[in-house]
């Protein structure tokens, strides 16, 4: 007599669950009109403000303020949708108990991270497309004319998104309540923008500000974006006299690794857990 054993199908792994969660995260994002409007309008409004105030002025030989600050605004837009938005959102979801319910459902932490990262990639891509369109149409900012510059734009943006997302996840267990997260993460982001050459010419900032900014990803993300939108001769105005693409990549990759290591050790589904 032969006994047939029926094997239960294995549960899906972290990757398929994470890919499915990207769609869910996007739907949740679109259901929050305030977040959608702020995420897409803030960089454009900042561009319009700087374009109106400094339009026609230059930061160096044949380098217009509009061209210079587009790089910083693009970088801060990436930080807005990754580090700032993700850090605040996770603190809110943890406080509401959403993360605890995901844990009960058996959601792998990696799948949750994939969902968040995928949502950030999609929304940031749309945000940058809108910003660059406004810059080109309203202020005649020249877009990169060759594939090499677009490739630089691509890897700088991707590393910026990855580092911002994992750092947003990494910081979320340390900021306390959702209200504290909103105030603390937003305040830190604003200060970092002033230090990193988003609102001012970086080489004109005090030396101590430059040194502090060099520790964090936003400075290198902004510098990488300047190498995309400014002419090659503008590299002479950087602190090192060059765009430092190698250093930019290394610093951003290092922050991705640091963020992942912190996430692995500190991620919590519930406040006070662990």
Please tell me about this protein's structure:
By secondary structure, the chain is mostly helical. Helices cover 71% and strands 2% of the residues. The chain has helices at 14-30, 33-54, 65-96, 98-104, 109-139, 147-171, 178-195, 207-213, 217-229, 245-266; strands at 58-60, 63-64. A hairpin with a 2-residue loop joins β1 and β2.
Spans of 5+ residues with little confidence (pLDDT < 50)?
none
Structural class: mainly alpha
User: N- to C-terminal separation?
Assistant: 51 Å
β-strand number: 2
N-to-C order of helices and strands: HHEEHHHHHHHH
Quote the beta fraction: under 5%
Number of helices: 10
The radius of gyration over CA amounts to: 21 Å
Strand order of the largest sheet: 1-2
Mean pLDDT, nearest integer?
Answer: 90
Oligomer: single chain
Helix content: over 70%
Overall geometric form: elongated
The main β sheet shows up as:
2 strands, antiparallel
Summarize the helices and strands and which ones pair or pack:
Elements: H1 14-30, H2 33-54, E1 58-60, E2 63-64, H3 65-96, H4 98-104, H5 109-139, H6 147-171, H7 178-195, H8 207-213, H9 217-229, H10 245-266
Antiparallel strand pairs: 1-2
